């Protein structure tokens, strides 16, 4: 099962983005150690789940055809800083490089959620002078371990809505579909942000929020 909340946005990006040139999207992954950032990346790239990774930082690329258009994803799987006084800071290089951000926490680790909350603020402050929206998707991972949950989906949903971010709660270990939704939602937000920048000054999208549950439907 995947829980999704979409951020505020304008018209459907498929309708707005009429051109068919190749689109390149630079995606920066952030989050604490052991929350599943690398597992999320590899799941998206290969469909496979690998549970453990070494302490490394990498940039990966993947090309897809989405809605008839070629999309190139460049994914920077960032390394979490070891120093506690640096755990929130995002470098100027990362801010300039990224078109969109995926912030990952574990639903079993409140400290990782608190870090994401601070990273959202850091990104917003760093991008304050850049016109248009900054695409951010928050991901609560390890939904398969919900019996050990310390962060409720309601609290994370509230953070996403109040910060104008997309939100998904997923299990990277259990489903590829949820991972795919995360990256496709961020792509939609990147498209919308670029379209807004090209539009008339002061143009804002229609505010909307949506909560949906994907997977097996439950009956009362």
UniProtKB/TrEMBL annotation:
UniProt keyword terms in alphabetical order: GTP-binding, Hydrolase, Nucleotide-binding
Keyword Cell inner membrane found: no
Chemical reaction(s) catalysed: GTP + H2O = GDP + phosphate + H(+)
EC number of this enzyme: 3.6.5.2
Gene Ontology molecular function terms on file: G protein activity; GTP binding
Similarity comment: Belongs to the small GTPase superfamily. Ras family.
Entry-linked CDD domains: RERG_RasL11_like
Name of the protein in question: small monomeric GTPase
Pfam families according to UniProt: Ras
